[in-house]
Protein: DNA polymerase I
Amino acid sequence: MAGAAAAAEAVPVTPPGAKHLVLIDGSGYIFRAFHALPPMTRPDGTPVNAVFGFTQMLSRFLTDHRGSHLAVVFDASRVTFRNEFYPAYKAHRPDPPPELVPQFALIREATEAFGVAQVELPGFEADDMIAAYAKHFAAQGGEVTIVSSDKDLMQLVRPGVQMLDPIKQKPIREPEVFEKFGVAPDKVVDVQALAGDPTDNVPGVPGIGIKTAAQLIGEYGDLEGLLANTAKIKQPKRREALEQNAEKARISKRLVTLDENAPLTLAIEALEVRPPEPAALTKFLQAQGFRSVVARMGLGEAAGDAGTRARNSAVAAHAAAQAAAPAADPGTTPYGNYDCVTTIEALRGWIAEATRAGVVALDTETDSLNALRANLVGVCLATAPGRACYIPLRHVASGGTQGDMLAVPEAAPPQIPFDEAMAALRPLLTDRSVLKVLQHAKYDLEVLCRAENGGIAVAPVDDTMLISYAMEAGKHGHGMDELSVLHLGHKPISFDEVTGTGRARISFAQVALDKATAYAAEDADVTLRLWHLLKPRLREDGSLALYEQVERRMVPVLRDMEIAGIKVDGTELARIGEDFVQRMAQLEKQIHELAGRPFNIGSPKQLGEILFDEMKLPGGRRSKATGAWGTDAAVLEEVATQGSNIGAVLARTVLDWRQLSKLKSTYVDGLAAAIDPRDGRVHTDFSMANTSTGRLASTEPNLQNIPVRSAEGQRIRQAFVAEPGHVLMSADYSQIELRLLAHLADVPALREAFATGQDIHSRTAADIFHLPPDAVDKEARRRAKTINFGIIYGMSAFGLAGRLGIGPGEAKGIIDAYFAQYPGIRDAMERLKEEARLQGYVSTSFGRKLWIPDIGAKDMVRRAGAERAAINAPFQGGAAEVIKRAMVRVPGALRQAGLAARMLLQVHDELVFEVPEAEVDQTSSLVRSVMEGVVTLRVPLAVEVGTGRSWAEAH
Structure:
């Protein structure tokens, strides 16, 4: 593995007789190897990609003789002495991926087979053991190199003790520590105590990041010096945060300080490097199928063949090298001069090259943006920056038509017969040892899995769009062209340049092969370059777990949901449409009577003239551009609250007419047009990287905006039905954003209400209006409910007044009472705004960064909007995180239980399933169990489950 080789070279050569201890952070390296390498399995099906990466590293250190002493240090358990005084420490960390779990024991077997000492001790972390051994070895005059990129170990750097970043293959000494933390290594724990670490649940001081912490420690010397002088701090919020969270800071310092006095489980002499026992090592390596490692260490015959095990080893070694240090510079290698592959011999050459590379960028060219209707026109591959090809499959003559595609005419350009090409590509696209890198992978996977396009289930995959999204949601777009300009400084050829625009646009199948190759192969080339640049950043950014455990796993889940679709009763839809038409006609008649004359209700200009010119109603605002009266929903809502006069009634009636009109055009007519005649189902497209909060979006058609509580919305949901012998099941998280508020702000009263199953709005009403629980009426509960949800969105007194129909003064009184009762919520909101201002982003409880671009805007309106977004983002984003984690777990749980239910839709906090009637109880119990147990918060999660023949009955 090239990365391991470079790492070995970076360790100083030990002169004869000198003492040099190399301590390998085994637990950290296991996860790095697992995420860096594509999936691999040994002959019995056991996953071994992390084992392979680990053995490659050990073999390099042993064969290159870089130390006199060597040990691998592991975590013995998740619970340590830190949990005794702070139970929340690392408590929210997710379980390791199922594919990694069986590899932990194998890695310990590998360490033993190599004859390398291994250190672990229950009750202590691997970092503590590394600290203890480094201290003892350095005290004896030896040099120590710690192989890890873990920032928590940087406190150990000193003369005689350095670190080695195994990702960048660079040593970490005092200058690198100062660059990371802004202080010398001996002050790192003080900075960490202030800044905290959400990954490990180290609380820190709210609103203080690394830069501010370094500045404070530099000024006051250490944590205790700072806490003793908080009165000198000029910024009121910072001073208050330090004074209120002093004890949390002290606890945080205890959490991050490594125990250099941890007991040594092995004597220093036991760590001396010794050669492995050849027979035992050979047996272990051959059992895993690691022939390349056997060959490297000269242990026996390793003559390769075309078999899976040999290829897996070579491919994984190359993939690891590419992940750690790509040979070609993705930013400077020239673009262009791509191959157009038109013979089966040339295609086989590219397939062999991609297989040897172990990582290949993949892209498809089609004739439609709708993946479930698109015909595959061509496939693109890229094996290295600047090395890419286009394989045309269904191109027609430039004058051909769409109808020519599936039966290629004689005048078509030269290309490989479709079935022959796909048969050749299938082994590559399904090879578990070759990582396929795509941009917006879900689309290509849906195209390729359809029978008419080859019926190929591509795996494994990485998605550059989702890699970018995991790190920078809300900061910028994540389309390939934008990412290329942003990260590569290269503007790709646009689709319009090769197909034309407007009426002159042609299908991609009609594009000449030279132009098609330049455009299509470049897409694959750019995708691979982006992967080389962005994938290594995931770990440094703290987003690797989010990408690997959530975003990447969502791709096949959503692919299957979109392919499944949901059945829509066209007859019922037509009945609903007819009813809406009749009601609109009645409303139109009523509106004309109120106005005193007929007019075009759909014309904002005519409506404005009636309301503000003829009726002289207050509240009108003219457009500066056109001079016409504004009549949007906000204006009409304001007019409608002006009492019971004719104008107010007219405004309310127009709003009702508009809602019906929108529902009719968007959902009745839109759904009818979207029904696939092949299966009678609607297949929505879930957009994975369009929102700034991590939520999914639904398009073509949008099924997330159907009104939930209105009678009209329920009517539309009646048209969504189950197949015969099945029911629809709705599983909906109850008040998840309020639960996240209670968790994040740590509000005891709300935590108690959720824990004991109280009605949260009634409890809030009793608290803020100082009422006995049995005296809370509907109006008090309504007000409490409005502020409970409004506070999450940063609602102002003016906004609350509008929602409740009261004066701004009274609304301000309610908000003041709310914050007086729940001061932790105000503190959390202020902390979120401060974090956004300092960092440019806020984080969910699960570590996703949500960027707030306008938080520093000079324009007050934009800045206020950004502050509201900063308050809301962790709750929307946190809710999105919870349901995504459920979505990646539920399908596997259903399969493992032998249940046939299919997950069809995700609508905000709700999942919709199609369930066989005989399996309703089992499925309901399992789904609820998975959804409620997917994360651990300070309050319990609750899921409401309903079933019925239609979505309306189930909801």
Observations:
- Residues 742 and 750 are 6 Å apart (CA to CA).
- Residues 691-738+841-955 form a domain with the Alpha-Beta Plaits fold (CATH 3.30.70.370).
- DSSP finds 38 helices and 23 strands in the chain.
- The two ends are 53 Å apart (CA to CA).
